[in-house]
Amino acid sequence: MRLVVATKNRNKLREFRQILGEGFEVVGMDELGIDAEIVEDADTFEGNALKKATEIARLCGFTTVADDSGICVEALSGAPGVYSARYSGEGATDLSNNLKLLREMEGQENRNAKFVCAIAVVFPDGTNKILKGELHGVIDFEMKGENGFGYDVLFYLPEYKMTTAQLPPDLKNKISHRAKALGLLKEFLSHTGK
Ligand code: IMP
After folding, report:
1. Which pLDDT does position 9 carry in this prediction?
2. Which of 53, 55, 69 is nearest to 3 (CA)?
3. Which atom of ligand 1 is closest in space to residue 135's alpha carbon?
4. Can 68 be counted among the known catalytic residues?
5. Tally of domains in the chain
6. What CATH number does the domain containing 121 carry?
7. Contacts of 147 (CB under 8 A, 6+ apart)
8. What is the pTM of this model?
9. Ligand 1 center to residue 114 CA distance, Å?
10. What is the pLDDT of the chain when averaged over all its residues?
11. pLDDT tier for residue 116 given thresholds of 50, 70 and 90
């Protein structure tokens, strides 16, 4: 089946192709000549994913998926959440976001956190489904590791005794919030007759 992914990010497309595997023709916005900028202004991951998928499905007429992800920290009442990419404000970088997170976590005993990924699929008839994956860990006291991106350098997994930036990328891609949501998407699409 043809599946449009509401992204211009090549790495994201590759991950969708790898995990969905044969039976899916994964197409990005660039390949369809769609240049829309969709403002992610919902207050939930699900809301942002559904907004992106709905708008691109309307433009292209094919079944469309979109994802939204971020990190939620218990002691910070779920922040940075949907603001993960721009946590430290205008011009935020991974480094400035991680430095802000370390500052906010000073003196916090509860360091529990989770990566969350919501994937929305919207069908040409307008119906939709949302799948969600989570990866639980704790916020480390210093940045460690060279792999990954975003908050990986601070996201410590007690069961592996390393941050997600220290995990081999292949392993992270198997256990991540995105891999879990994509696995659920694959299972859902294989059971729906659409
Ligand atoms: P988006 O889903 O592309 O909007 O990404 C949101 C932000 O969440 C990213 O810019 C990262 O800061 C953070 N994030 C999402 N997934 C991960 C991950 O797997 N590792 C580290 N940071 C992540």
Report:
1. 87
2. 53
3. 19
4. yes
5. 1
6. 3.90.950.10
7. 164, 165, 166, 167, 168, 169, 172
8. 0.95
9. 11
10. 95
11. very high
